[in-house]
Amino acid sequence: MSKDIPRARSRRNLRIGSRRNLRIVSRRNLRRISKGVIHIQSGFNNTIVTVTDLRGRVISWSSAGTCKFKNRRGGTPFAAQTAAVDAIRIVDIQRAEVMIKGPGLGRDAALRAIRRSGILLTFVRDVTPMPHNGCRPPKKRRV
């Protein structure tokens, strides 16, 4: 048993090809589409902005969390504005449809940031899921 056993790589070497490093490299080139869809998902703690083509393939995305806003600060309008600017920064797009989902504070701020960028918006639609009857409520509490 004189076979040489390869040593495990250190944690630092494994991080070289991590997702965060790969994303920084891929953001450098500009992606061109004539028409696309911008999805804004706004919660109380975070805002996620995704740019897709008409078939639904993701071209670019950003969130308040990836823009270094953590916890409750991720739900603020300024964090949503920063996430929207970051998502559309690398996309060269002329016309877009906007789909807004969620009850958060960042809905309007993200939409304002997209309008200021010079993209022509064909329509803005609120696609927040609304229950028609909802789940069955819990049984009444007896004391």
Helix content: 10-25%
- Strand/helix succession: HHEEEHEHE
Strand order of the largest sheet: 3-2-1-4-5
Biggest sheet, open or closed, and with what strands and sense?
A: 5 strands, mixed
Say how many strands there are: 5
Computed CA radius of gyration, to the nearest angstrom: 21 Å
Distance between the termini: 71 Å
- Unreliable runs: 21-25
Descriptive labels:
single chain; 143 residues; alpha/beta; 5-stranded mixed β-sheet; 4 helices; globular
What does this structure look like?
The protein has 143 residues and is α/β, with parallel strands linked by helices. The chain has helices at 11-14, 19-26, 77-88, 106-116, and strands spanning 31-42, 47-53, 58-63, 91-101, 120-126. A 5-stranded mixed beta sheet has the order 3-2-1-4-5. Strand 2 and strand 3 form a beta hairpin. Helix 3 runs parallel beside helix 4. The longest helix has 12 residues, at 77-88.
